[in-house]
Design a protein that fits this description.
This protein has a single domain, classed as Rossmann fold, CATH 3.40.50. By secondary structure, the chain is α/β, with parallel strands linked by helices. Helix content is about 20%, strand content about 20%. The strands form two sheets. It has a three-stranded parallel sheet, covered by helices on one side. Strands 1-5 form a two-stranded antiparallel ribbon.
Length: about 110
């Protein structure tokens, strides 16, 4: 669940499931380096434009257990002050998280 009070701006960058374990799977992420380059570029652009960057991390009782090495964001991704973090336990980032309620509302870190 979300550890911060959040309101959503109509434009936000959602970065979903970019955790270390997902980059170590037997079937690799297609063009992982290019994907990460684009995520870093888009994150920087969103911040410069004043749009929130929201990291959504999946957790489960396996390799993505909250706080484990596999659960951590990929090392190339470094949240900055003002970025938001949401934890999910279902495939959908909107199921049982604050994202559904935040759609169409301003987003600010408290």
């Amino acid at each position: 669940m979300c550890s911060q009070h959040i309101d959503i701006d109509p434009a936000a960058l959602l970065l979903i499931d970019l955790q270390q374990e997902l980059f170590r799977k037997r079937i690799p992420i297609y063009r992982a380096d290019a994907l990460l380059d684009n995520v870093v570029l888009l994150s920087d652009r969103a911040r410069r434009a004043g749009h929130p960057v929201v990291y959504v991390q999946h957790s489960n009782q396996g390799a993505l257990k909250t706080g484990s090495d596999g659960w951590q964001l990929h090392p190339r991704l470094t949240p900055r002050p003002g970025d938001l973090s949401i934890h999910k336990q279902h495939d959908s980032a909107f199921h049982d998280t604050p994202l559904k309620e935040m759609q169409g509302k301003p987003l600010k870190a408290a």
